[in-house]
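Data availability (excerpt). The following record was deposited with the supplementary files.
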Amino acid sequence: MSDMSVTSAPSGTASFLRRALRNRSFMVGLVITLFVAAIALLSFVWTPYDITQLPVSERMKPPSATHWFGTDHFGRDILSMIMIGARNSIAVALVAVGIGMGIGVPLGTIAAARGGWLDETVMRFNDIIFAFPALLSAIMITAIFGPGAVNAIVAIGIFNIPVFARVARAGALALWPREFVMAARVAGKGAARITVEHILPNIVSLLLVQGTIQFALGILAEAGLSYVGLGAQPPMPSWGRMLFDAQTRMIVAPYLALFPGLAIVITVLGLNLLGDGLRDLLDPRLNRER
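Predicted structure:
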């Protein structure tokens, strides 16, 4: 009898996988995201051409069997540049999200746990940061330290802090009046222990979904900063920088803007679909098999 009961009771992991396979948004987003990540990883060991070489005789070649995406005004292979640009965009967005989550989540959960003047201070601090978008922050940072990918990471990361702080605070505030939290307080647990053991595990799903969304926004922000010259600097390829270089050649070579633009659109679309799918899978109100 015990064997039959174990077999008939599906594990939480198996149930999640079944629902994930049926969720089109999640699966399409996952496939696109994994594909872009694989391209970025592949660029560390192989690209069709060496972009450090400038074969002038190959400049402005349209897409062909030799150069699938064509070449730019220096003769560099567009496909190779997009592959390397993928790892730069992903690295900037990933670290920026890590900065925002690593600082914002503790701030939000502490504010929810303590309340009072501390909560008010954290929220007003968030409002001040929100008044300075990533682009404006990057301008101020680069005015002091100069343009570069590191400064772009810092600017985007700072902008992500209040986003995660608000999400974490809202999720925590909804949990503090719950019975299991009250039981933990009656048992003598302090606010810090309750936050670590009970609050954070129950808001992980919110943070994962928000992290996916901010990852997509980070890709867009990095492209925007590179477009205006505040992100990755030449000769390091960047999708935003490729769009900037292509704007004066749109008539004679539209493919110069087409392919990096598609790379940005596909990547952001995949991350947004992945975030929507995760929200559907992790939201208890949408979970019918939990």
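Summary of structural features: The mean pLDDT is 89.
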